[in-house]
Hints:
Mean pLDDT: 74
Number of domains: 2
Number of strands: 0
Shape: globular
Number of helices: 4
Distance between the termini: 77 Å
Helix content: 55-70%
Order of helices and strands: HHHH
Oligomer: single chain
Amino acid sequence: xxxxxxxxxxxxGENLTPGTEGRTIGSPPRPREARGIGADTGWAPEKPRSExxxxxxxxxxxxxxxxxxxALFVSALQRSDDLSAGQIRQAIAAAIGTFDYSGCAGRVAxxxxxxxxxxxxxMRWARTVVDKVIGHPAAA
Length: 140
């Protein structure tokens, strides 16, 4: 055995061919620039564009509508009921108060697993109703 501290050369890297540092057995060689050695890689995090910053409120509205649809989905309200906007908002608030947002989402997922056909129809109804009650962000 030779090498540093009595370790085998394969463990110390003494027997490595120049340019093979950082490789594992069987991996193809990478150019030095790809490893960030000897050249400026030019990588820098991108700055957010102004369009991306203005889109965040729209995504927030989407998540509110999605959470509202989940809550309406798990509520006791039925599609056949003649419902006012106030009753729908109250049912959504009650479901969120009872199950929280993640609990509503979990119950939706469970229902889709147990009864996918009826769950799909109920979710279409819930999303349509929530869109009418909460409104579209573009209309605001």
